[in-house]
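residues and backbone:
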Amino acid sequence: MLNTSEPTGLLKTLPFLFIFIFPIIINGQYLGLSKEEIDFCEKQNYNLTTDTDDSIEKIIFTIPDGSFVENKDNIRKILADFIKKKAPEIKTIIFSSKNNIASMKGFFEEEKINTDSVLYYELKISDYWARDLFLSAKGKDSNALISTESIVKPIACSIGYKSFVVDQNTQGGNIIKVGDTILLVGMDNVQRTKMETQMKCCDYCKLADSFDYSNQRFLFLGNCDCEYNKKRASCIGCEDKKECALDAFFHLDLVLLPINDSIVFYAKAVPVGECQEYIKQEINSLNDWIETFIYKQLKENGFTPIPVEIPYSCELEYYAYFLNSIIEKREGKTIAYIPSYENNSFTSYQDSFNVNLKSKVDSIYEIGPFDEITRYGGGAFRCISKVIKRNEK
């Protein structure tokens, strides 16, 4: 029986997830924290898990009950593919219901797949994307999972982590940590049509402007009325501008793949097949948006952005999310785990991406196929997984 009791300490009083990363200071005063909470923050000094540095030690996969039946063969193949190709030192943790776990174990046994480093936990999961369920962070003496969802508590308890529940949306797909830089954007996954934001961009600006993050840089990417510089981001009259809440945002990890603290691949959408004119126009608009609010901001902040053509199948209506990948550095070498697709119209684009990526990393492992998951779920490899621990040097 998993211990799902309420964690003690910081939970209900914290205004936002970054409290676990940087103490909130305004005019020298901590906001809304007791002395014990202040001491806890200062001693632990939680920092988000990096997305580019160090080797992976633990990675989580969550298999939802509702979609497992229809996608079970595909999910099994993807996990089996990863387990066979990953470094033996990486612990793979799978959370799912009892029946799903039994089915998964049976499949691995039949395929004679070595699962010595695979840990199973029986827990019903409804969310498809492990990446977006929670954020992972490391403190001085402990690791933590941070989420708006209460499911984070039994997950964290199972693996010996602390858990923190916050009110704000902790969309893991919208936070990418590159070295000492956090790239942040506040919307849903890449779409051909505009969507309403889940959180106003200026809310991020106001929150970030309240933090003392002298050892970190926040780079806000997206159409937001915020001033950008290396140390602060402040809002300018956002309360009076409706577009602040309505302009299209999407998950950053479908658009960007940082390789290190300077090189970042970014998406350039390409229509494939017989496409109606309005779809072409929407893709052109999307590319203009990325060019203006992603590429230029990266360039101005010292990054080297490299475009990657991301094909969109007009016939089957889904993108090939090549950039939804995971990077690690192991024994001095950079390794990329990338999603692969079986759609023949994507093949030349996949090959081109692999050639481009190979010039920047030492090894590439294709994991897949992701056609069904991407087509019906809207994500790929980074979305279904969550790196929760790296061997930081």
In short: Residues 1-34, 186-215, 224-249 have pLDDT under 50 and may be disordered. DSSP finds eleven helices and 20 strands in the chain. The first helix runs from residue 35 to 44.
